[in-house]
TrEMBL record:
Residues 213-245 are annotated as: Disordered. It comes from the Bacteria. It holds the Pfam family GcrA. It comes from Aquibium oceanicum. This is GcrA cell cycle regulator.
Amino acid sequence: MSGAYPVTFAWTDEAIARLKKLVEEKLSASDIAARLSKEFAPISRNAVIGMIRRKAKAGFPQLKAPARTGAIRAPGAAGKPAKVVRPSTKAQDAHHEGRSARYAIKAPPRLTSANDPKGFDPDLKALADLAPAKKPVETLALAVQRAVTNAKAYDAASRHLTLTELQTGDCKFPVTDDAGGAHRFCGGQALPGKGPGGFGSYCAHHQARCGGGPSTFRQAQDSGRAAGKPAPRATARSFGEWAAA
DNA sequence: CCCTGATTCGC
DNA sequence: GCGAATCAGG
């Protein structure tokens, strides 16, 4: 259920040509990343630096190294996650002391570009996978944004039933969390399931959001039909519409 | 803190 | 091949 989205930037010929131009204009790596993010798809500064370096052999223009007065770091010192736990070495570098100490102690898990650049909740990845890309080059980040927007709109348009108003076959997904107010629930048509009345807990939309995904939705439809029940009404906005909107 | 590019290596 | 994590430094 993943792989529907390119987690990495799509280095099309067009994007590479643009990259080359921006390097020639002496922009910094982060400036270039910002521009490419706007013109194509979100991309990190590291990704830009990496591509420029890899293209060096092909005669690609290179970034200008900032002036240095100090010594160049010995090869092999960078990039390698700290594997040895060194609780405390006496302070070495006043400027970066705290940083070095922290990094030495914990080797943080390597994250995917799903979290980059800046602030995409990894938990939203599954949600994004539900929304088909409009273009082959659409990135995970854009899909997440779209899916979240759609999800909020769906909740806002739901029935907002209180607990006592909920009936058999109503979707029990909570759609409000306002402090002090009554808890309210979606109330949409629940999919067939193992619960009372042969219904599940959620409507198609919220089932999908709870991790089911399109295949789960289809399975529920099929099992519903096989049991002689009407195919689940696809709620106010059908799953497909929701996912693709 | 902000920022710069450089490097390694897991994926 | 790609790029996050981490580096060294201004």
